[in-house]
Write a structure and sequence with these properties.
Helix 5 crosses helix 11. The protein is built from twelve helices and 19 strands. The strands form four sheets. Strands 4, 6, 7, 10, 11, 18 and 19 form a seven-stranded mixed β-sheet that branches. With 358 residues, it is of the alpha/beta class.
């Protein structure tokens, strides 16, 4: 079958091969025919080494498709079922799951160290234990979440990561208060989803911050009340909040520099929500006095900060009701053969989300 493979960490191009085999099928596993997958910035971060990932590997973790076959002991899905790929499935038994913090379950991360593809030259890993830039993928059954027939594969793929992460940051982690002021730094697919979440919660002012003009224009269509470049943020803070700072600031870039900017633009007693996934060696510096004196809440948001299954269901309900725009997030579509074109679209910021059709 075909799959896009990164040979070594640090390379910026993928190579599409036709001799890749999805491996590991057996009890408790499912084989999925991938129909659509989104390109998430985390895929680029894994390719560059910002996020730890063994190589060679097949990127992609935001996917949807059909069940081809199920292993022994799998009962919640059957061949032919439509599913979204959940890259962080909950085991239901660990301390985090028992506390109701299923997004913190580590069971899914254990899959990342086990190869689930093979080429004639040897084993190949799947990013985050999945690897959806492939025609088929074998994953733990918990990674396959059934979706209703009326949800298109491309929409379902986005729900698998970016939309759930962004919406959840506003709805679950921050629990944005109606009438509040919000700033979102980084307005790709996840940032736009955070904007939609803040709008749903009734935020009065939502300022989108991004260096790319097209993304700023898009943010206004999705619910932002103002869109500015990073060097215009100080003026926006003054005009919108009287210089006090925003009630909520979402950092959706994953860098200490933008997290520091977010902190400085959060009002005293306000909330900074860290959504972007950053590097192990990139440290955010805060002095102990400001941490104490400003009483700002710093809330990291992992995969939307809530129960993933519940978040999927909620997102589908909001989409059906026309309360969130998911179709509009897909600005580009490319076949798997043109995967490097999608990478360029993400790197230059010309795409909110590119759908890779497989």
């Amino acid at each position: 079958m075909r799959a896009a493979v990164l040979h070594e960490i640090g390379q910026d191009k993928l190579e599409v091969f036709e001799d890749v085999e999805a491996t590991g099928f057996g009890p408790g596993k499912v084989r999925i025919r991938v129909r659509a997958t989104g390109l998430c910035h985390s895929d680029l971060s894994a390719m560059s080494g910002v996020l730890p990932q063994p190589a060679p590997f097949v990127p992609g973790h935001e996917g949807a498709g059909e069940i081809v076959e199920v292993g022994e002991g799998v009962s919640h899905v059957k061949a032919g079922d439509r599913v979204v790929v959940c890259w962080l499935p909950a085991c239901g038994a660990c301390p985090a799951c028992k506390r109701g913090q299923t997004e913190l379950c580590l069971a899914g991360f254990m899959n990342a160290g086990t190869p689930n593809f093979r080429r004639p030259g040897g084993d190949v890993f799947g990013f985050a234990g999945t690897g959806t830039f492939a025609e088929e993928v074998v994953v733990d059954a918990g990674c396959a979440v059934p979706i209703p027939d009326d949800v298109p594969f491309d929409i379902a793929a986005l729900i698998g990561c970016g939309v759930t992460t962004g919406l959840g940051a506003a709805l679950n982690t921050a629990d944005v208060e109606a009438g509040s002021s919000v700033a979102v730094i980084g307005c790709g697919g996840v940032g736009i989803s955070a904007i939609q979440g803040a709008r749903l919660k009734g935020a009065a002012e939502i300022v989108a911050v991004d260096p790319v003009a097209s993304r700023r224009e898009s943010a206004l269509k999705f619910g932002a009340t103002k869109a500015v470049s990073p060097d215009e943020l100080a003026d926006a803070k003054q005009n919108v909040t009287g210089g006090e700072g925003f009630d909520y600031v979402f950092e959706v870039v994953g860098k200490s520099a933008t997290a520091r900017t977010a902190y400085e633009n959060t009002r005293r007693g306000g909330t900074l929500v860290v959504v972007g996934a950053g590097a192990l060696d990139d440290f955010l510096q805060l002095n102990m006095f400001e941490l104490f004196f400003d009483e700002k809440r710093i809330l990291p948001s992992m995969y939307g900060g809530g129960d993933v299954m519940r978040s999927y269901e909620r997102t589908i309900a909001l989409w059906r009701a026309g309360r969130v725009n998911l179709e509009g997030l897909i600005t580009h579509r490319v076949p798997l053969a043109d995967i490097n074109e999608a990478l360029d679209q993400m790197r230059t910021g010309t795409a909110l989300r590119t759908c890779i059709e497989i």
